[in-house]
Amino acid sequence: MRVDLFDFDLPQELIALRPARPRDAARMLVVRGEGLFEDAGVSDLPRLLRRGDVLVFNDTRVIPAQLEGRRGEAKIGATLHKRIDLRRWQAFIRNAKRLRPGETVEFGGGVSATAEERLADGSFVLAFHGEEPVEVLLERAGRMPLPPYIAGKRATDAQDLEDYQTMFAREDGAVAAPTAALHFTPRLMDALDAAGVARETLTLHVGAGTFLPVKGDDTDHHAMHSEWGRIESETARRLNAAREAGGRIIAVGTTSLRLLESATGEDGLIQPIAGDTDIFITPGYRFRAVDGLMTNFHLPKSTLMMLVSALMGRERMMAAYDYAIANDYRFYSYGDSSLLLP
């Protein structure tokens, strides 16, 4: 499909630079398969879902994956985006023309890494020195990897260490937050429990590649970066049982949706999974696992804009985004939410 079919103009003032406070005070646009759009709030979620529905959260935890260092006199920036093994990470490099395989980058605080090889997509494999876990090194030398549309407008600060982490964060490994779940609070979870809405968790370590713009004019020419994910066998069993009993599976965030769809066969049964996925969902895709999606508003011409268009229909989603812009919804990672029910 033509990439420009998923383009739209967004006023810069609608890009949220801080989240709503409290988190569940964010607005939420309800988009159904047909009919009028509904202006609601995240706190309305218990009345918008049904007893027996299941919300599926991603429990990945964002690590301080952005590093600034030097190779000699050259400044080198690195954004880790996928773990290879205990000491090696794949990383996007800023000022990559000044770095060659075999050279070492000093990141400060006693943290350094060797650029082992340059991959076909332009990223590098970085092998970190020493015996301390890489996560410990990152806590010392790294910073929270805010998306460029936020980091380009203000400096990352201590508040982001809390704001850019969901209440479900448990498994270290993401370099971007599963932002749909940023809206949840213990108070909201209690209300969902009282409404009979169940919850499950999976793990997908979100990589920066998910949010890269689609290069080229056609979706056929875009290659998704792979990300590692896991759904436990008991989680899969409970999800299948809930659906068999008439409950709907509502993914909280595109990361949860992508792993659920990766784990589901043609028979509609969700299977346990532990491994990489590079699923790329565009209009025409037949959804097998999910019955709805809660997600923030996405960038124009992004793979995530294509995903929500696949779920709801491109014209329906473009109309929803026009409505959101006209009604001053806040966009992107720290922005408002939408509930998509095809």
Automatic annotation (TrEMBL):
Q: What is its EC number?
A: 2.4.99.17
What does the record give as its pathway? tRNA modification; tRNA-queuosine biosynthesis
Q: InterPro entries attached here?
A: QueA, QueA_dom1, QueA_dom2, QueA_sf
- Presence of the UniProt keyword Cytoplasm in the record: yes
Name the top EC class. Answer: transferase
The record lists the catalysed reaction(s) as: 7-aminomethyl-7-carbaguanosine(34) in tRNA + S-adenosyl-L-methionine = epoxyqueuosine(34) in tRNA + adenine + L-methionine + 2 H(+)
Q: List the molecular function annotations (GO) for this entry.
A: S-adenosylmethionine:tRNA ribosyltransferase-isomerase activity
Major location category of this protein: cytoplasm
Q: Which Gene3D superfamilies match?
A: QueA-like
What are the alphabetically sorted keywords of the record? Cytoplasm, Glycosyltransferase, Queuosine biosynthesis, S-adenosyl-L-methionine, Transferase
Subcellular localization(s) per the UniProt record: Cytoplasm
Give the Pfam families listed for this entry: Queuosine_synth (PF02547)
What is its biological role? Transfers and isomerizes the ribose moiety from AdoMet to the 7-aminomethyl group of 7-deazaguanine (preQ1-tRNA) to give epoxyqueuosine (oQ-tRNA).
**UniProt-listed PANTHER family:** S-ADENOSYLMETHIONINE:TRNA RIBOSYLTRANSFERASE-ISOMERASE (PTHR30307)
Complexes and interactors: Monomer.
Its family?
Belongs to the QueA family.
Please identify the protein, giving its name as recorded.
S-adenosylmethionine:tRNA ribosyltransferase-isomerase
In which organism is this protein found?
Answer: Qipengyuania profundimaris
